[in-house]
Amino acid sequence: MVPTPIRGVIVTASLVGLLSTFAAGPVASQAPTSQPTFRVNVDLVTLDVIPRASNGQFVSDLTQNDFQILEDGVPQQVASMVLVHGGRVFNILQPPAPSSPPPVEGLILPAPRPRDPTASRIFIVLVDDLHFTAIETPYVRALLKKVVGGLFHEGDMFAMFSTGPSSLEIPLSYDRVLLEEAISRVAGHGMSYRDIMDGRDGSLGPQGLRHNAHVAFKTAFELLGNLEKVRDRRKALILVSNGYDFDPFPEGRRGTDQVFGGRYGSPWADPDRGDRFLQLERQGNRFADGDLAAEMAALTGAANRVNATIYALDPRGVVGTTTAVDQMDPTEMRTHIGKTQGSLRTLAESTGGFAVVNDNEYDGAIKRIDAETSDYYILGYYASDPDPKRRNRSVEVKTERPGVEISSRGWYRTRGDQAPPKP
Hints:
Shape: globular
Oligomer: single chain
Number of helices: 10
Number of strands: 17
Structural class: alpha+beta
Low-confidence stretches: 1-6, 21-41, 267-271
Distance between the termini: 19 Å
Mean pLDDT: 81
């Protein structure tokens, strides 16, 4: 089953209302009939920064002068600095007021309200049920229960959405009961190994495979876009998925699998044999890995722009190569597993997070996510080179404090077309 395109609209609408309470200024009481136009000269770029000593302990006594920010190799001046430590928020440095406020058409914003001194985190759990199978449903439910019980604390806001027919649409809430009820509705609808082998191929590989991936990326893209309204809060997207591979088991699909024969069930010793028509038809899929990289770049760019971190959880746990029932070439299976796990690592590590793969327990990983989202600095600066033509900006945060290592995102993407690339 494939979800209809309207899901993205529902996901966006569910988040917009509740995210407004965390925006920089209050929202007008009545929604305008059309989107107001904002003209801003320079945006405040914010970074979540985690400094740790050699023993792994969080360093909480750094000052503005201890940090150095480089964007595309050019030093930047720290304009704002917030420390979140031990459940408390400390505004060490407030950004200066702009000399001439950017003009706003159609809205008059009141003075900002004082912020709650208690640190609250925002977690968006995205259950990618288009990329795990029905047989893996119990493992996913058990993993989600661990996440809810071990990661979410008093004062945290959390939401849960799905990419497919599980139809999870839990907007931001403090009520953990809503998540526990939603977990019972989770069910996998992804393509199994045999579904891929027994199905038909198109010019872009197995039919439905890329569509499912694009639905997943678009859903995550829209969720992250709404998080831009949130300031001075730790924002994380928890992605539960088996990962992505646009060209799985190519030899088996062509019928040149020398172990089991692939979809035609007759092994050939001659690798030149097989379905010649399919070999011609699949030429449109020759850049499958590049297409997947483009989709992931759009998603990680959206996450970095709103200063959100992606943590990817692979519900498969420790993955073996294959079984006799699957009748898959072990070499191709290892390649597929490597690609799917690599896609999860890329999505997470490109945003300052990490992927949990080949792990059957998840307890240590959940504790690490909890630690990384509990103690951190938020540094802000106004980019000195606001060239709209340069969309991808590299960022590096350094410190001269001896023995301290800095962890933060390494790049971000400026605003552009608000849509991920289509497959």
